Amino acid sequence: MKIINYTNKDYCGLAVYHTNALQKYTEHEVRTVSRLGHARYRGYSTGIVSKDPAVLSKWIDWADVVNCHGVINVLKKKPKNLMVTYRGSHFRGNPKRRYQAALNAGAKKQVVGGAWMCHYGGLDLEWLPPALPVDDWLKMKRSHKGKPIVCQTPRSFISKNTVAIKEKIEKMNNFTLKIVTGVSWNKCMAAKADADIYIGSFKRGYGISPLEAMAMKIPVITHAKFEDSIIEKVGYLPFYSCELEELPDAINALLSDKKLYNKYAMLCFNYVKEFHDFPVVAKKYSKMVDEVLNM
To answer: What is the distance between the alpha carbons of residues 190 and 142, in angstroms, rounded to a whole number?
Structure first.
């Protein structure tokens, strides 16, 4: 079967990881196709990049299934079988409108990248988790001497609540706080690999950065607005959940109780192995593609 993950610069991560998972763990022929130029993403080739409508049409014709990652508005030609995967603010801003636009374009299946997004706008969408090379990331974890390290790696201080988080914990003296931003992905991962605790955004859910930490067996502390939806899909909360006001107490609890720390380190790791690891997502994605073809 021939599959295209169609994307743009903003959504290339999810698309590229899905492509690599399918290439490695299924017999499908898979390509990542983008109409906007961008560099290699997180160590993986981003595939075919072109603004030429003839080139893009050729690849759409080639595919049995085209999965648009949040960028259906840039499709100039209707695929034989269309699937749409949503993530981020593009969908959250107006989920019903995005859903209807995809139906109008002929989408046979619409899924979301975050478990907490499944019921946005009163919709009932399936969850296709981001595919992660969990074992590769686990090998990056390093031990260090000195104080424990509490880390966050925001691309945007606003979206990750970084200023409010710093205000809550920067005067604590039983750990070193590292806010890593404005560096390459490789440098960011190297810094994260030293961390003992990772701090999420305390907003809607959790993105790739906390998942990278989980894969390194680093406990993640955060709070999600739609925790009921996460529990419905996962069965539990895959992080140490607390309100932002309780963050200092949560950090102290993990650092002072080795048994509790190890519990959350393994909970986070087991979660990404069960739901996000390449072979797991490849199997789920492949099943969804089969469903699309049989509709």
So the answer is: 9
Q: 44: Cβ–Cβ under 8 A, 6 or more apart, which residues?
A: 16, 17, 19, 20
Q: Write out pLDDT tens, residues 3-13.
A: 999 987 666 77
For the segment 87-111, the average pLDDT, to the nearest whole number, is: 89
Cα Rg, the chain, nearest whole Å: 20
143: phi > 0 → left, psi -120 to 50 → alpha, else beta; which? beta
Place of tokens 């998942």: 211
Q: Which residue, among 150, 73, 67, has the nearest Cα to 113 in the 3D structure?
A: 67
Entry pTM: 0.93
Task: Report DSSP state, residue 270.
Answer: H
> How many other CB atoms are there within 10 angstroms of residue 74's CB atom?
13
What is the CATH number assigned to the segment(s) 2-131+277-293?
3.40.50.2000
Query: Would you state the structure tokens that stand for residue 178, as one six-digit string?
Result: 């590292």
Q: In CATH terms, are 2-131+277-293 and 134-275 the same topology?
A: yes
CATH number of 134-275: 3.40.50.2000
Name the range with the highest mean pLDDT among 35-49, 65-79, 127-141, 152-166.
127-141
Question: Please, what is the average pLDDT of the chain?
Answer: 91
CA distance 226 to 211: 17
Q: Where along the chain do its domains lie?
A: 2-131+277-293, 134-275
CA-CA distance, 95 to 121, in Å (whole number)? 6
